[in-house]
């Protein structure tokens, strides 16, 4: 599982855009958004660098949490 802090994800529309961007990279991944903490986690066979790039390109630069 990969977890990102996404500080500018503030509403349901942002959460949908983030989810869509991440699923564009990993269509079968499980994406969970925590708006209160402004975090998103992605489970499954994930490409962390590809996910980070997708977040940046969607306008939601995120910082990977943990290793």
Task: Describe this structure as you would to a colleague.
The chain is an alpha+beta fold and 67 residues long. It has a single domain, classed as Alpha-Beta Plaits. It is built from 2 helices and 4 strands. Helix 1 packs across helix 2 (48-57). The longest helix is centred in the first third of the chain and has 14 residues, at 12-25. This is Heavy-metal-associated domain-containing protein. Pfam families: HMA (PF00403).
- Tell me the total number of β-strands: 4
- Fraction of residues in H or I helices: 25-40%
Strand content: 25-35%
Mean pLDDT: 93
CATH class: Alpha Beta
Total helical segments: 2
Q: What's the CATH architecture name? A: 2-Layer Sandwich
- Give the CATH topology: Alpha-Beta Plaits
Distance between the termini: 10 Å
Secondary-structure element pattern, one letter each: EHEEHE
Major sheet description: 4 strands, antiparallel
Structural class: alpha+beta
Number of domain modules: 1
From the alpha carbons, calculate the radius of gyration and give it in angstroms.
Answer: 10 Å
> What is the strand arrangement across the widest sheet?
2-3-1-4
> What gross morphology would you assign?
globular
Weakly predicted, low-confidence segments: none
